[in-house]
Amino acid sequence: MSMTLLYVQTLNGLQLGVLLFLIAAGLTLVFGVMDFINLAHGVQYMIGAYLAAMFTAMTGNFFLGLALALPSALAFGLLLEFLIFRHLYDRDHLDQVLATFGIILFLNQAVKVVWGAAPLSVPIPDALSGSIRLMDGLLYPVYRLAIIGSGLAIAVLLGILVSRTRIGMLVRAGASNAPMVSALGVDIGKLFMVVFGFGAMLAGFAGAMVAPILSVEPGMGDNLLILTFVVIVIGGIGSVRGAFIAAILVGLVDTLGRVFGPMLLRALMDPSAASQAGRALAPMLTYILMAAILFFRPAGLFPAKK
Amino acid sequence: MFAKTKMLLPAALLALSSGALMAQEKVKVGIMVTLSGPSAVLGQQARDGFNLAVKTLGGKLGGVDAEVIVVDDELKPDVAVGKVKGLLERDQVNFVVGPIFSNVLQAIHKPVIDSNAFLISPNAGTSNFAGAQCSPNFYVTSYQNDQNHEVLGKYAQDKGYKKLFLMAPNYQAGRDALAGVKRHFKGEIAAEVYTPLGQLDFSAELAQIAAAKPDALFTFMPGGMGVNLVRQYRQAGLADAIPFLSAFTVDESTLPAQKEAAVGFFGGANWAPDMKNPQSEAFVKAYEAAYNSVPGTYAMQAYDAAMLIDAAIRSAGGKLGDRNAIRAGLRKADFKSLRGNFKMGHNGYPIQDFYLVQAVPRPDGKFQTSIRQKIFENYVDVYAKDCKQPN
User: Last residue of some domain: B246, B269, B292?
Assistant: First the structure.
């Protein structure tokens, strides 16, 4: 039993990791390239989910809905950048935190006004509605495998984009030394906007992908945002590769720790004490991981070279 | 006679000075429920249920013109205390009806019972106010919080289940829920899993459930957590293999989002929309016509709260100032409850029947819970014996 359970939980951890990566990739670039703390990044994830829910309901087809949701999420991200964020780049971090926190509050209420407070649901698309039997009595939805697959594919594409293309080169250069890139004649404002819009779209994509398995509700991005910050700090701010490895690491530690932590404790102490301790320990594991990594590598696993 | 005039004079002066000469001819009810945030739908049901009752009674309660003031507690105890003081001091309400959530109840209980108003809870029913801290100014039209969980524990025991898997969010109500189930279930507990409050992806827990192979799952996952758990439980193929027992997880507030995924899942409740009695059938019909949604227990209990107030004022002969007569009327609870069998216990908590309910689809495409069997009859909560009020 315990071997198959381990495989299944590893898949679950992988899925969480992939989702975290999709959100973290945008966040780490925005933070790394623009030195801009965007707490409202989790809101982009929520907006993506709501847009997917709305367009899927309109068109009756999830893939069409997804195809419409992505450009809309991009447009929404650019709109926010144009209206609010670009006025904050030169301010200090505290101003950025306050302003983007205000955006979280505002948009969480706004989606309630537009779509209502009750959670929305999106049906799993027929083409991916099957499931496979991974262990006795448990079916694993193919859709969850599709999330893992699409997330990994985007990771590879993003890796190529950042390390092999001209725009990727500019982004990396911006992360290392933005004033120098600007001095070399690159329109850094435009570069920021592209990065920002792209990051918003990736977060929106993550939201759209989870819409069929999670309920779409106000504030759904707030919990993930904290884990996302843990991911980019572990991975090294500004590094897409670091974000990927850290996201998978955090996803696995969080999932496996939650399940097997209490089991291990039960072998060591009596059951009621184990369940007490497990309850307290499991949510801490990712933060213990972060503390341990920062102890040995204060700038994260793969810091952008300064 | 002399004493009476002596009491009336200051009251009349007060009424004159505030310019509200007619104040005593109206009964004022302050409704305090949660109307914002992800749980707003519960408060909306309670508000709508109460308003429907007042409408049915022709805008009167106990024959006296009624004014209903609705406020949102925002699910924040500190906000609730401020707003309830506004209701008591500025609006001078005779009754406060609320709240939905137990943590808000803990906060507003004392300010209200120490005032001139009565507190009627249409949902939250914590153990402390049912037992040692019971009060003659506090009445509950719902249940004691543990009871809905006890229904499933008793059902699992009677059904002969040997092994239960328990899962709840890691906070006070979650731990209380699992304690409630274990009060009646004496078999083996396969595992007791506590998830972080607000967790939405249950894939890791579902794999654990499948591995443990229990006879049934009991869970308490209110709101959005329940919506996600139910859908993922169905997607994982566990729904057909392991019965899903729950409380506050599959009900009329979550079914609009859970839809087909919840069909066949069990819950514990004191009422369901298909309750067979004339007053309940009329209520469900009127509610659906007015609000275009299926009423849940939240709406039913608030409707009954209005009917309880109506009966109390009526039995006091419409004299709102006679607090002892009103109190006696609240205790007597001489009204036709939508759930049929209903008595007020000496601790102000109901003595009523509890049922196993199951989620079913309806011909009109909506979903509701349906009564399957009676689990408890005339059930008194376990804390009532600690309440030292006279019967």
Answer: B269
Local confidence band at B222 (pLDDT 50, 70, 90 cut-offs): confident
Range of B244's domain? 147-269
User: How many contacts does A have with B, using Cβ atoms within 8 A?
Assistant: 103
Q: Say whether both B308 and B209 belong to one domain.
A: no
- Domain at B178, CATH number: 3.40.50.2300
Residues B251 and B338 in one domain: no
Tell me how far apart the alpha carbons of residues B388 and B74 are, in angstroms, rounded to a whole number: 33
Whether residue B374 lies inside any domain: the answer is no
Residues for chain B: how many in total? 391
Structure tokens at B383: 């804390």
Q: What is the pLDDT of residues A87-141, one digit of tens each?
A: 988 889 999 999 999 999 999 989 988 987 777 888 888 888 888 887 777 788 8
Cβ contact B207–A135 (<8 Å) = yes
| ipTM of the complex, rounded to two decimals | 0.79
Domain count within chain B: 2
State yes or no: pLDDT of B18 exceeds 50. Answer: no
CA A260 – CA A159 distance, rounded (Å): 33
Check the CA dihedral A32-A33-A38-A42 and report its sign.
negative
**Residue B335 domain flag:** yes
Mean pLDDT of A215-244: 89
Q: State whether B228 and A1 contact (CB < 8 Å).
A: no
**Same domain for B265 and B151:** yes
Q: Which of B222, B244, B269 is the last residue of a domain?
A: B269
Q: Give the containing element (helix H, strand E) for A83.
A: helix A62-83
* Chain B residues bordering chain A (beta-carbon distance below 8 Å): 36-38, 40-41, 170, 192, 194, 196, 198-201, 203-208, 210-211, 213, 224, 227-228, 231-232, 235-238, 241-242, 256-259
Residue numbers in B near A218 (CB within 8 A):
37-38
Q: Are residues B47 and B195 in the same domain?
A: no
With CA atoms as reference, the chain A residue closest to B171 would be A279
Same domain, B173 and B59: no
B52 and B113 belong to one structural domain: yes
For residue A80, which of A47, A58, A57, A53 has the smallest C-alpha distance? A47
Closest residue to A217, CB basis, from B38, B205, B206:
B38
- CA pair distance B110, B127, nearest whole angstrom: 15
**CA–CA distance, B306 with B10 (Å, rounded to integer):** 30
Residue B16 pLDDT greater than 50, yes or no: no
